[in-house]
Design the sequence.
DNA sequence: TTCATCATGTAACACGTTACATGATTCG
DNA sequence: CGAATCATGTAACGTGTTACATGATGAA
């Protein structure tokens, strides 16, 4: 196999909560899931077909209005089993974060490079914005202790993402301070 | 375009430091660069051909031993210009980190899920190992102030990676502590 | 002389993005 | 009745991984 096809597990994980259509799944990737994983409908529809061929999901056709057909997908027992196995299995591969800014930084040889400070400023702005956005999301999605306990994993990863961005912003800040001033 | 072809810029960036063969480039991805970017020789050789067709690099053939041909690639002026432009241009896209563990965590619904604690322990071990490895690298690659100043960008990103892993380990630790004990 | 490494390439396949394509429903 | 959204699909292309394929060199 080339990679690992994580998409199939995300779909199974979402269907394990509620039956959904391909369209609903696409929306999920635009919204909550989109914070940490992306997928387009052109990837989702074929994957649904494959999962169904393999017996991990089934669908029923419902009619909306006069004749618009919706395919509502359900997870099967074997699908739920596969999902459980995936989560239970070890996750030993720490994906290298392919951060384009970090890559560019690698090629900056000296602290006197005139491109350095503007680059750091841009990233500080972008990561500060992201941090603010994530903090707002935490407040709206998990306003109460009860809501946090109800979707504990989601709560944890939002917290984690906030901490990560806070670290990033702080590192940029410290790096900017540490750069020797041009004489 | 589908993505952005960052590989071409990495190759240009490396050739901007020294002329290298495809084999040397492959080694670079196994070693220093491998910490934050991967590429196999099957991707590198065709990319070298494309960059040469576009006039960004040239090569000279050298003979090693009796008849082994090595293609030593050099960056051209237009190649150096392209590299400079890429670095100078903004980097507004913050890549979502596709961390499989985080993804699995999303599907853990409650703090009582028996899979949760073992998962966190495994990740703590993995990220602690990575942190240790990175700290060792910092010491061997940048032992002196002078060495840090000489390859400032590389030094910064190693520092950054260490801080990131330290945050990750700390977060895992705090999360483990916060999980309510089973009664 | 054999094994690890040097050295370069292609093929097949998996994954991911953008674009193409079509049609129904709902709300103003 | 027009526009936004709902709803489902395919095609083309780019990127990335694994596997296939070949041969030379250097050191034990």
Sequence:
């Amino acid at each position: 196999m080339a990679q690992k096809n994580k998409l199939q597990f995300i779909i199974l994980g979402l269907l394990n909560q509620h039956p959904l259509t391909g369209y609903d799944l696409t929306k999920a990737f635009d919204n909550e899931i989109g914070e940490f994983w992306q997928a387009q409908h052109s990837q989702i529809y074929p994957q649904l077909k494959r999962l169904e061929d393999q017996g991990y999901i089934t669908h029923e056709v419902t009619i909306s209005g006069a004749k618009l057909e919706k395919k509502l997908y359900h997870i099967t027992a074997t699908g739920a089993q596969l999902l459980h196995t995936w989560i239970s299995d070890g996750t030993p591969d720490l994906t290298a974060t392919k951060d384009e800014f970090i890559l560019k930084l690698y090629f900056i040889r000296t602290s006197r490079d005139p491109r350095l400070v503007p680059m750091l400023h841009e990233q500080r702005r972008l990561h500060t914005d992201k941090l603010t956005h994530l903090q707002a999301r935490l407040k709206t999605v998990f306003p109460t202790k009860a809501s946090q306990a109800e979707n504990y994993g989601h709560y944890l990863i939002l917290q984690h993402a906030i901490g990560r961005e806070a670290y990033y912003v702080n590192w940029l800040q410290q790096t900017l301070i540490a750069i020797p001033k041009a004489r």
